[in-house]
Write a structure and sequence with these properties.
The chain is α+β, with helices and mostly antiparallel strands. The protein has one domain: Aminopeptidase (3-Layer(aba) Sandwich). About 25% of the residues lie in helices and about 30% in strands. The chain has an 8-stranded mixed sheet. A hairpin with a 7-residue loop joins strand 4 and strand 5. The longest helix has 18 residues.
Length: about 170
């Protein structure tokens, strides 16, 4: 990934780099964590980016791969914002779910109080988000804002949380 530091062992030897990095990309493929890329600047997303480029990439890119972009705002260091998720055409539910689990682990490593997101895609149901621990937050007319609160109590870690797929 251009202009990013790739962490192949983000929950082990490279944990300190993960904790220090404010902006990152979680890359999962075939139901496994491939890497976390720590970025120098935040991901800025527009409606054009989400609708045009995201959909175009999803439709044209084959494979079972998913990228989740998160930011840790400087004004709110105890929170993460899940700002963008993009998947390839053949992305499985296991790959998408693994990205969600890794985001929880990033929150645990950084001792984050909550994660916020705007669920732009209508195919992501409120029921699924509720099942994964997300709840509606600050309703707005054109946005579906959700929050996943931790405040020191994190979901149980997956037994393979440290496993990163071999390239």
């Amino acid at each position: 990934m251009l202009f990013a530091r790739t962490l192949s062992d983000p929950f082990g030897a490279q944990r300190e780099a993960l904790v220090r990095g404010r902006y990152g990309v979680i890359e999962t493929a075939a139901g496994r964590l491939q890497a976390i890329h720590v970025r120098c600047w935040p991901k800025i997303v527009s409606a054009l980016d989400a609708e045009w480029f995201g959909r175009r990439r999803h439709d044209s890119q084959p494979g079972d791969r998913c990228l989740w972009f998160y930011n840790q705002p400087r004004r709110f260091p105890n929170y993460l914002a899940l700002v963008y998720a993009v998947s390839d055409r053949d992305t499985s539910f296991a790959t998408f779910r693994r990205a969600a689990e890794v985001l929880d682990e990033v929150a645990r490593a950084k001792q984050i109080d909550a994660i916020l997101c705007d669920a732009w895609n209508e195919r992501i149901s409120a029921r699924l988000l509720a099942r994964w621990g997300w709840e509606p937050h600050k309703p707005q007319r054109w946005h579906r804002n959700y929050i996943k609160r931790f405040y020191g109590v994190y979901p149980p870690a997956r037994s393979q949380e440290h496993a990163v797929a071999a390239c």
